[in-house]
Write a structure and sequence with these properties.
Structural class: alpha+beta
Number of domains: 2
Strand content: 5-15%
């Protein structure tokens, strides 16, 4: 029985079970949660418990792919908004860390090989290790990497756990501020009723007014001669009519200039009128525009779209995305027809289709194998982690290819993400635990301290520069730090503290850039 638990499946489930128990322990309100698996792995790894490496690779690609799928829809918007600042912070922090590593190596005289191994290990960069080993041709690189790697993992986990406590960061406040910034970019949509007092609008058709172009609002219903109906572009309006418009606060203010002052009167709903939220689940309409799928032909209209918790004003050029919630207003028969076209199948929304997961990961592995020459110095490739992340980001943005929907329900994404992270942490913990004590005994505490210095320097620099110069939200900042340190376990810890996409989006933005920088700096530390 003992032998069964020391290897293979038995060891895997023992490490994960023990780690989850450790993760539940709270000391002054702080718990390790999933990262407790890493510490269980370090302990049992020291006693020769062994988990097959295949679980590491499987867990890593599943975790990273689900991160890409989760953040893809908002990644590109975030990159356009803050991409330059994110990349600038990453470049500054990693450049200073590389310069620090260079001078530490010169001052201590430990040699380039040990120095660059500690640098790549502290930043948990396997591609950096590969590049440094290829450039130096020395086994000392991997020995120093073996010591610094667990320190890099543990250091980031401890940093993102304890630094917020030390700095007295209120995560609820940071979440609120992040969500408020999202609402600023995507303002809340509401409705107002206007009595048409502008004489120039009498007997005009809505398409003559260019309602969307001028006000960016949507007309949800009109009351004419005490009869309410759903308007279309061919609807005619008259002075004294009541019109219900939906849009942002700024859009509704523009509407005042066109129609007149809003009134407190309500447009009564008749038995034939309906307003309903409908979920987009019909694969046939995904990635088609609202103009292509003319819902208004059924005497109803799309009033509002809710996508990833954000309200969006519909336009003819808006695309249908799987999982969107549409507020449809119109006649009961019309809304029923719209529901048939849009789908509204909640069961389909919650089902997990494994085809996009496995195909997406496979595509990511191929992307990771592509070699890109960097001048005449070396060839660069993203590796499995970077390739799978890029695949997840791009595929979730595309949304649909033929019959395949590149999407995951939030519950399925969270389950797979935590499973992948648990497997990954269990394997790297046991691997690091095997040689950790021996490496410390062989190389001494001196190299250990250098690894700690290189690990915590980018964390502290990132927080100081990001918080007090760039003024980043702290959740975003933690995502940036874990991304520029290529620390997947660190991201897992941050995600356990918040349900928002702040950290994963920032992580995904800087991760590929940081991957390239660490490879380049690892090469330079060998060559200089």
């Amino acid at each position: 029985m003992i032998e069964y638990l020391k290897t293979g499946i038995g060891a895997l489930f023992l490490v994960v079970s023990l780690g989850l128990i450790i993760g539940k322990i709270k000391i002054k309100g702080i718990s390790l949660e999933l990262s407790g698996i890493l510490f269980a792995g370090l302990i049992l790894g020291h006693f020769q418990f062994e988990i097959p490496k295949i679980f590491l690779n499987f867990g890593l690609v599943i975790f990273v792919f689900t991160v890409g799928m989760q953040t893809g829809p908002s990644f590109f918007d975030a990159f356009r908004k803050n991409g330059q600042k994110f990349l600038l912070l990453s470049f500054i922090v990693l450049s200073i860390t590389a310069i620090l590593a260079f001078f530490v190596g010169k001052i201590t005289g430990i040699g380039k090989e040990l120095n660059v191994g500690a640098f790549a290990g502290a930043l948990t960069s396997s591609p950096g290790l590969a590049a440094a080993t290829e450039a130096s041709k020395s086994p000392l690189v991997s020995i120093a990497y073996g010591l610094a790697y667990p320190i890099g993992i543990i250091g980031v986990i401890l940093g993102v756990n304890f630094l917020p406590k030390i700095l007295k960061i209120d995560f609820k406040k940071e979440e609120s501020e992040y969500l408020a910034s999202l609402r600023k970019d995507f303002p809340e949509i509401s409705g107002k009723t206007f009595e048409i007092t502008n004489p120039n609008l009498n007997e005009k058709y809505l398409h003559e007014i260019n309602l969307r172009e001028i006000t960016n609002t949507t007309a949800s219903r009109i009351l004419h001669n005490n009869k309410a109906y759903t308007p279309t572009s061919d609807s005619q309006i008259f002075t004294s009519d009541l019109i219900r418009l939906v849009g942002t606060e700024d859009a509704l203010k523009k509407a005042e200039l066109v129609f007149g002052t809003p009134v407190e009167k309500q447009i009564p709903l008749t038995d034939k009128y309906d307003i309903r939220w409908i979920i987009v689940t019909n694969k046939k309409i995904i990635n088609k525009t609202y103009k292509n799928i003319n819902i208004s032909a059924y005497n109803c209209s799309v009033v509002k779209i809710r996508r990833s918790g954000i309200d969006i004003t519909p336009t003819p050029e808006t695309y249908f995305k799987f999982g969107d919630k549409l507020l449809i207003a119109g006649s009961k028969n019309g809304v029923d027809k719209a529901a048939e076209i849009i789908g509204n199948n909640k069961k389909l929304l919650s089902d997990t289709d494994f085809i996009p997961i496995f195909l997406g990961v496979l595509l990511g592995v191929f992307i990771g194998k592509i070699k890109i020459p960097i001048g005449n110095l070396f060839d660069f490739s993203l590796g499995n982690t970077g390739g799978v992340l890029i695949a997840g980001l791009l595929l979730s943005r595309i949304g649909k290819t033929g019959p395949i929907l590149w999407t995951l329900s939030s519950s399925a994404n969270q389950l797979l993400r935590q499973l992948g992270l648990a497997l990954f942490l269990a394997v790297i913990g046991t691997q690091a635990g095997v040689n950790l004590v021996q490496t410390i005994q062989d190389l001494g505490v001196y190299l250990l301290l250098i690894s700690i210095l290189i690990t915590f320097s980018p964390i502290c620099l990132g927080i100081l520069i990001g918080r007090y110069i760039f003024k980043f939200n702290f959740l975003t900042l933690l995502g940036l730090i874990t991304g520029l340190m290529t620390s997947t376990p660190g991201l897992g810890v941050v995600q356990s503290k918040s349900d928002t996409n702040a950290a994963p989006v920032a992580y995904a933005t800087v991760y590929p850039f940081a991957l390239v920088l660490v490879i380049i700096f690892s090469q330079l530390l060998v060559l200089l």
